[in-house]
Amino acid sequence: MSRDSLRGAQVVIHFDGQRCIHSRHCVLDRPDVFVPNVDGEWIHPDQATPAEVLELAHNCPSGAISCEAADGSAMEFAPRVNTLRLRENGPLALHAAITLNGKDEGYRLTLCRCGASENKPFCDGSHTAAGFMASGEADTSPSEPLAQRDGPLLVEPTKNGPLHLSGNLEIVSGTGHTIDRVTDCWLCRCGHSNNKPFCDGSHLTAGFRSEP
Fold this sequence. Notes:
This protein is 11% helix and 28% strand. It is built from 4 helices and 11 strands. Strands 4, 5, 6, 7, 8, 9, 10 and 11 form an 8-stranded mixed beta sheet that branches. A 3-stranded antiparallel beta sheet has the order 1-2-3, with helices on one face.
């Protein structure tokens, strides 16, 4: 599915099907704006106010939904605290000013940690069919508050290995408690680490390959 852009009188909604993990916040929260399983246009920006559209974008963990004002000005800005949330039995959800392999990727991404995605490093929902099990409530590590909690976050998926993240980042559980505060970390994306969400080298014995 390609990227769709639907223009309304006040706001433009962008939808990137390659990123969508079907969290369904959009169709459940505003079925008048996002109308699935219909012929023709299924996104209707004028059914919501710009503030409501922005809220829908913020509720999309993968960044599949984004928006801008009709005049091209930005509506969404980098968060004040960079976070990575562990989704129960699912992907890593980032909220930050993200650069992935040197490319600006906006402010929200869901990255595969089961190893089964055919759209690596992005999650494509394969964790469900793969029966991936990984708690969203990992053990907490002692950490000091970061001197700065925002700023750019660089993401580098290493070949046949973990995700390397550099920048200010708070790793939090699915229920919101802080697991760790880091400025540099290596995160498992093969699905086999015994120290999830962190890499422990298991990708080597598992024979993990990062190519889709």
